[in-house]
Write a structure and sequence with these properties.
Elements lengths: L6 H7 L3 E6 L2 E4 L1 H15 L8 E5 L2 E3 H6 L2 H4 L6 E5 L3 H12 L8 E8 L7 H7 L8 E10 L12 E11 L1 H21 L5 E4 L6 H13 L3 E6 L8 E8 L3 H6 L10 E8 H12 L8 H8 L1
């Protein structure tokens, strides 16, 4: 009996994704990108009258801001930094000799002042901090960024480089919590319109190490993070396609973002995994977008 073809192999055979030889790093077809663009436009229709501004970030952020985020303390296993050749002519000759001999040449690289962005909202916080205290309404920003997390996998929904579309709310605790609760409802409404099976569940981030297990348990106990999950690569282990997060005043303190009264700002965000949502649509509606349900096509293509 033939073994079942994996979802990843189906995506390759249909030309939706293209294999690069590195797990979690794929070329995306025009059709795949069109679905993402359509979904982004669809998502931005929700809450569009609430945002104060919009930003798009590059896939890298200043190393100093990356360090301020505390990411290396909590998720060192996922982090990536940018290295580059910084040597002279003599060093270059040594590098070329290593390459020609098939030897490791990466020790000729040195860290730059750029880290790969791990979450779309991180570059926002230092920008807000530089502006001084928030007004009474706080900030409500729409973001998009390429992100990196070092977790190679055969699961196509666990890419190493991917895009996040986010809404971020910065202000008081009440403003942040109300934002998160509103978006938990909106997220489910969006999935119903797109006819995708889903559930919302309490979750935690993949904190590292023994202490990280305690932090994850505390995050779940306080219900700081919820995820909207959809079966994509597996029905028994559905994929988080949206996340709804309340950070309390952690980022406000880390970056010295202040409310109008001088207290540390609270933050919350809703994140959409753009590649994951596109994969969910192909998984449940098929590889021919022309044959997708009429309600889904109407929502995405108008």
């Amino acid at each position: 009996m033939d073994a079942p073809v994996s979802f990843l192999d189906q995506l390759f055979s249909q030309g939706i994704l293209h294999d690069s030889g590195v797990d979690g790093l794929y070329a995306r077809s025009g059709m795949f990108e069109d679905v993402i663009s359509r979904f982004e436009e669809f998502a931005l229709g929700f809450g569009k009258d609430e945002i104060t501004e919009a930003m798009v970030f590059p896939p890298g952020m200043p190393l100093s801001d990356f360090e301020t985020s505390g990411y290396m303390k909590n998720f060192p296993q996922l982090a990536g930094t940018v290295h580059a050749f910084c040597g002279n002519d003599h060093d270059h000759m040594g590098l070329l000799q290593c390459v020609a001999a098939g030897e490791d040449w990466t020790d000729k690289q040195k860290a730059t002042d750029v880290a790969l962005t791990p979450a779309a909202c991180y570059p926002l916080y230092p920008i807000l901090s530089k502006r001084g205290p928030l007004n009474a309404d706080g900030a409500y920003v729409a973001l998009q960024s390429y992100c990196f997390r070092h977790e190679p996998s055969k699961d196509p929904a666990r890419m190493q480089m991917f895009r996040q579309r986010e809404y971020v709310r910065v202000g008081s605790a009440d403003q942040a919590m109300a934002f998160r609760e509103t978006w938990k409802q909106r997220g489910q409404e969006m999935m119903q319109i797109l006819e995708l099976p889903h559930e919302v569940e309490v979750a935690n981030d993949p904190f590292f190490g023994r202490a990280g297990k305690m932090m994850g348990a505390s995050q779940r106990e306080q219900e700081l993070k919820f995820e909207l999950v959809v079966p994509v690569n597996s029905t028994s282990r559905p994929t988080a396609c949206m996340s709804f997060n309340y950070h309390m005043d952690n980022f406000g303190k880390a970056w010295n973002i202040r409310q109008a009264d001088g207290s540390a700002a609270h933050t919350a965000c809703v994140g959409f995994g753009l590649e994951r949502i596109a994969l969910a649509l192909f998984r449940h509606h098929g590889f021919d977008v022309e044959a997708w349900p009429s309600g889904v096509r109407s929502a995405l293509w108008g």
